[in-house]
Amino acid sequence: MIRNIDKVDLQILDFLIADARMPYTEIAKNIGVSAGTVHVRVKKLEKRGLIQGASLVVNYEVMGYSFTAYVGIIIGRSSDSDKIMTNLTKIPEVTVANITSGQFGALCKIRCRDTSHAKNVIYKINDVSGVVRTESMISLEETINDKKRLFKQIFEL
After folding, report:
1. Looking at the domain assignment, is residue 50 inside a domain?
2. How confident is the model at residue 3, as a pLDDT?
3. Strand, helix or coil for residue 85
4. Of 7, 44, 94, 95, which one has the greatest count of Cβ atoms within 10 A?
5. Which is nearest to 92 in space by CA: 133, 58, 140?
6. CA–CA separation, 32 and 140 (whole Å)
7. Residues 112, 81: one domain?
8. What is the pTM of this model?
9. Over the stretch 66-121, which tens digit does the pLDDT of each residue have?
10. pLDDT for 123 beyond 70
11. What is the rounded distance in angstroms from the CA atom of residue 129 to the CA atom of residue 136?
C-alpha cells in the first residue's frame, strides 16, 4: 500500500494530520492542485483504509476535568479481558482502554475533576468483575502528543 502513495497524497495526509477539519480548498491551494483532486484523493485513501474518519480534540480542562491518570489493571484471567473492557465502557471517565501484555492485562486513561473524583472512578474500576487490583499513575503533564513524527518517518519526509 505504501508504494502506491505519491507526493500529492503525502502532502494531503500531512495537512489532514495537522488539522482534520482543514477545508479541501485550503489544502488544494497549499499544494497546487484543485479541491476536486483533494476530494477524490481523500476518498481513495479512505477506501484503502489509510484514513479512518477524522478526529476532534476535546479540551477536558475547560470542562473542569483537568486530572488525568493512567490505571493499570491486573486481571485474574486473560479470558475475562473482553468482559472487563465492556464493563469499562460503562464508566464515562475511562476515555481510553487497551488490552495489554505484561504486568497489566489492561491499561486505561481516566479523566476526572480532582483526586477525590479519581479515587471514586478507580474504586469503580476495581469493582469490575475479573479485576484483581489496579495501580494508578497520575499524569502531571501531557508533554508529547505528536501525530506527525511517525508519519514522517514512515514516508521518510
Report:
1. yes
2. 63
3. helix
4. 94
5. 58
6. 42
7. yes
8. 0.82
9. 999 999 999 999 999 999 999 999 999 999 999 999 999 999 999 999 999 999 99
10. yes
11. 18
Query: Domain ends where: 56, 71, 99?
Result: 56
The total domain count for the chain is: 2
Model confidence over 32-61: pLDDT tens digits? 999 999 999 999 999 988 999 888 888 999
Burial grade of 3 (CB within 10 A; 0-12, 13-18, 19 or more): exposed
Distance of alpha carbon 53 from alpha carbon 51, whole angstroms:
6
User: Grid coordinates in use for 153?
Assistant: 518517518
Q: Whose grid coordinates read 495526509?
A: 13
Within this chain, do residues 8 and 67 fall inside the same structural domain, yes or no?
Answer: no
**Confidence band, pLDDT 50/70/90 cuts, at residue 157:** low
CATH assignment at residue 37: 1.10.10.10
Residue the block writes with cell 497489566: 104
Q: Which residues are CB-neighbours of 104 under 8 A, at least 6 positions away? A: 72, 73, 74, 75, 135
Q: What's the chain's average pLDDT?
A: 93
Spatial separation of the C-alpha atoms in residues 56 and 92, rounded to whole Å? 18
- 69/111 same-domain check: yes
Could you tell me if 51 and 73 lie in one domain?
no
